[in-house]
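Quick question: who can interpret this fold?

. . .
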Amino acid sequence: MAAVAALAAPPAVAAEAPQGSAGQQWALKVDNLYVTVDAGADGDMKLRAKGTTAAGWEKFTLHTDYVSGSGFGASVIFRSEATGRYVTAEDDASGNLLRTRVESTGSWQRFSLVPLTTGEYGLKAHNGKFVAAELGTYPDRGLLRARTDRPASELGAWERFTLEPISAPQSDPTHMPAPSTPAVKAHNVVSWNICANNNTDCPLKYAPPTTMAPKVATALFNALGTRRPDAIFFQEICEKQAKPLELALEDKWPGLDVRFMPTYYKVTGTNILAQKNCSDGTDNADRGAFGIALAVSDSNTWYQGTVLPSPDKPVPDKKEQRPMLCAVVPDEGSAYCNAHFSSGPYINSDGKLVGDDSDPNNLFRPKQAAEMRSQVGNYTAAGYTTYYGGDLNTTSADVNYLDSLYSSGQECGQTDPTKPHTGAPTDGSNKIDYVFGPRGLKYTCRVTDPALSDHRIIEAETS
């Protein structure tokens, strides 16, 4: 079943987490108390079990970064939604306190989730010890320290943690507004995999947000000229690049908001999903999670992130849990869905068949297409005209995997709905990026290569 998550706004503080993310939020509970970031005069961003409700200072997102020999998902990293900073288990000199004080990740920010028989977890820190909530008197009451070296089977109530998922109105279908006007026929929708993480073939690899944003915006301005997009689908973008990109795009196209949805990995030994972090590169800069983004009119208030059906392999061959992000714009009568499907099979440098979707007997791209089609149908039933697509990692050789998307829609490369897709390649010699819309319109499909990514920009214009 697809998993849904979205953002709830954290309290306003100086270093708050990126806004507009559809990443799942969590509360951490121990001994019937919520873990809070204690920002008081004596708190110094220490973690303390004292909350009775899960409000802003009790909300966290779960992340995972690459560990040599184990890959992603071997451990989990907690980021405070109130401060935007990562939880660290400090050294012996600091009493092994847990604090949210750093903006980058490494071994001291990683915790192993150790499942316990009750559905709770032990949190094992980098020092090999489990995290405990102190039961002493104030000021130590409830403080979290990585200090317990007993076996997991012997952990007490103060060392057994519950992860409680927190949803937000932006992801709840009951909060989805109805369209306030019918959609016009003329639309311009763009999709571009900007390759902004760590791919060595891409000019934007490891790009700081302030460097990446103007380059991407300028490339789009040059490609579209006087045409203003109604929506832009981005793939392979880092979370903290989203807001600077929004500001750069608004230099020419005011009135846009950029929403973000992370790619996930399943945490080892659990069913918990953690957001894949963008690589730090060589400058140890935090770029937040890795995923997709959607630029839409700033009248948008409701958006929904979905974890698509994805291959689930054991360590060390775990696979990315692929994202989809949809948003509705009531005053346009339009909805938009962007996705990044699983990669197809390929032969690696060791001569092995690899790729997220490399098992021919259990293919996931058709399942991902079906899930996208299902959600598009929900928006259509609600009265919205929906445009959808993204990097679907599917070439003309296996385009039948996308049959469910073609079943009641039209792709911008089709001259009419009965024809197979055509058009210029978007990645090397292959077309793997798509934009679909309703049938019965006249489509113009343009592909532009700004030489800034391993993908080209695909632009769909309807009339």
About this structure: The first strand starts at residue 3 and ends at 5.
